[in-house]
Sequence to fold (470 residues):
Amino acid sequence: MSNRLINWFKFASPQSFYPLAGRMIPWFWALTAVFGAIGLWISFFVAPTDAVQGEGYRIIFIHVPASWMSMFIYLVMAAWAGLGLALNTRLSGMMAQALAPTGALMAFISLWTGAFWGKPMWGTWWVWDARLTSELILFFLYIGFIALQAAIDDPRRADKAGAVMALVGVVNVPIIYFSVKWWNTLHQGASVSMTKSPSMAQTMLWGMLVMALCFWMYSIAVALMRVRAIILERETHTEWVRELPEVKE
Amino acid sequence: MSAFLAIVRRDLLLAMRRKSEVLTALFFFIIVVSLFPLGIGPEPALLKKIAPGILWVAALLSTMLSLNRLFATDHADGTLEQLVLSPTPLGLLVAGKIGAHWLTSGLPLVLLAPVLGLQFDLDTSALGILVVALLLGTPLLSLIGAIGAALTLGVRGGGVLLSLLVLPLYIPALIFGAGAVEAHISGLGATGHLSLLAALLALAAFFAPWATTAALRIALE
Fold:
């Protein structure tokens, strides 16, 4: 048992994680491609045309997975940040830093496709709906995290400050979500409701789930590529980086 | 406890010696609030409707202005290091600094808000709710802001970065604070909003000094 524990911590060092990440990246890209192909096939050819919304509804196959991932990545980022603060491992901070741009991208895609969806369905690009507003605030939180990390030159301090920020953010996310929800019910009636839509066809749900897997694998692959770049950047002074074949060339 | 009071006294004394800084933030609040009717138009019905929101947004912005100085001057002259080294728990000292910050930047806003509310045609009971909401909400702004101020201590472009970090976290306070007055005006009663605001304040009063302490230790490492 103790042996296994040591094995896990071995990969907490950038030196041993770097080649491991390199070996995992092609697999995650392959999974992304497979799930993406299946998911897109389901969403374009198998899933039936929606009776109310027509063909335009198909954007949810991008929109919903992107919103799920934007929330999930924030949680993962905060978990890495907490781990980094608790165990003082360097890799945790690097992982949190590597995840943030992907999370921000997902939040942005979710807002963007939401606007594309809203225009034909609701007749407007934007409504101050509780979900839209909290997604926008989540996007702001990502931007704040990235800006804080970018502003601090010392990488160790940047990691720790970012970790505190991510943890403060993750405590606030549910509070913000509920406050926005109650604010919304106070201000406007339920003119637009996404929850009251008729129950979804089974194939639509499958399409969404497979696309979510595709987005998930993509996020892991990109985060691993980014963390490799961050490791190289921060460890340039070390012997093992200079010995790497891709650096030597 | 004596250390807490000593810190509050010291920060209040420093603020009294440099009155202009406190007054600048206060006049910023007044000017921002007065700009809205000029931009929107003088219709009393519309102004009455948007008054709580405007007063609250102006309070958020003027708190942001004074947050920068919460730790920056102490950091510059080395006092902050001495506070960290002192045998008294840093959380207590930080709580004292936050308390002093509220007394110099939050409390004046609370006292001024009803006067500005009169310009927006709010009636007496709405003004009372506004004062209570601000009384509960402005300490919350100081507490959450202190975390941001500690995180951005000595960082390039700290001021703008601070607003980017802290303003999204202020949203619940804004919603419940302005919502309390609006709910009262529309006859729904403000107790629910005020209770939630008080709950947030209790949570922040417990966690924020602690998070600020962690952030300060990181900044001084």
Summary: Chain A has a mean pLDDT of 84. Residues 14-46 of chain A form the longest helix (33 residues). Chain A has one domain: 20-49+58-248. Residues 20-49+58-248 of chain A form one domain.
